[in-house]
Structure formats: C-alpha cells, structure tokens
Amino acid sequence: MEPLGIVPLHRALIFLIRERATIVDAVPSRIVRSAEAEFPMPRVVQFREMVRVPYRYGTVPLVACRPAAP
Description:
Elements: H1 9-17, E1 21-33, E2 38-47
Antiparallel strand pairs: 1-2
C-alpha cells in the first residue's frame, strides 16, 4: 500500500460515509459524531477500490520514430 496524499478530516469522513474508504489507523481517544453516525477520528484511510492517479509533471514527450535507412 502506498500513500497517495493527505486529505482534510472532513474529506476523509465523506469517503467513509459514502463507503469509498475504510479506516486503517485511528486516534483511539477521539470520536467524530454526526446526527446519524459515530466514527473514530481517522489517521489513515484506505480506498476500497483502486484509484487512478494521473501523472503530475506534464505529459511525456513522444519521440518521432524514423524508419531505418535501407
């Protein structure tokens, strides 16, 4: 498992509520409560499905291929 990035607490909770992520590590003494649910405060969340991460540093230049001289 490789970390993809850091997200704010409210974004991590949205992933948990929508069941797109699970809690891997949580703060044992902290609880986040809403009107309908209660979650331990997550430190690390893991996506349930693989997420495509785009290449960050621009596109890779394509090199023109020339046919070999006969």
